[in-house]
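Progress report, Aim 2. The chain analyzed during this reporting quarter is listed below.
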Amino acid sequence: MRARNSLYIFTIPALAVLVLFFVHPIILTVDMSFTSFKGIGEAKDVGWRNYERIFTRDRYLRELWITIWYTVIVVSSLTVTGLFFAAMLHRMPAIRNFSRAALYTPAMMSFVVVGYVWQFLYSPINGGINVALRDLGLGGWEQNWLGDPALALYSVAFTQIWMFTGFTCAIFLAGFAGIPEEIGEAGRLEGASSWQRFRYLELPLLGPSITVSVILTTIGTLKTFELPFILTKGGPDGATRMLSIEIIDNLFGQYKFGFASALAIVMLILVLAVAFIQNKVLRDRESH
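Predicted structure tokens for the chain:
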């Protein structure tokens, strides 16, 4: 009993840090979200007006939809591409370590560096992508990648997918490493092809890795800010203006601390709700 009490005592510093730097700021943000506070002066209570404004104006509902759609694109693509590369590297041990490091390198780079590099590549005049298409005789495929509202969101999403494919690949490679070799040997002895072994033997055993990858990438993508801001600043015509950009703009651009707090709480609830649903669905899938 004394040993158990000692263990609880050792958790006090961690709990204190959690309360001080996580729970307390959230409480303050919730409280501020019901005011019209502008950073200075008195914080006037406005009730639910900030939240009513968010859910009754098309502008903010559109930004919410853009955030969700962007997350669907990025998370689904990262899951597929990461799983593809992991499955390939799992079957090629000779180049696995080198390729894993090469794939993971973009994820270690700064968002600012990646953003400006891809801003140059997407440039409509002398950008690397359009120049390459021109040199390959595919000039008709040249696009204004970041200036066209129909393409901008997908261009930003592609940049994030390129950046974090190595991250999801590393998660899936760890999952492959946990699969007993006897299972693959049994499949080969039964005459199963590489695809059949992956589909019916390996993929079901990768359930925990899929859960971890999907939840982590979803949380990270829902609150993404750097790449959309650097590449498009929310344009063109609001095509890439997500909740995160709206929060920063209201907070530091217009000094609407109260309204920005309400947007932040909406984003927090969205992230927690999606993470909870995903965790339940994916955990249920693992148990079956």
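The radius of gyration is 23 Å. Residues 62-287 form a domain with the MetI-like fold fold (CATH 1.10.3720.10). These observations will guide the mutagenesis work planned for the next reporting period.
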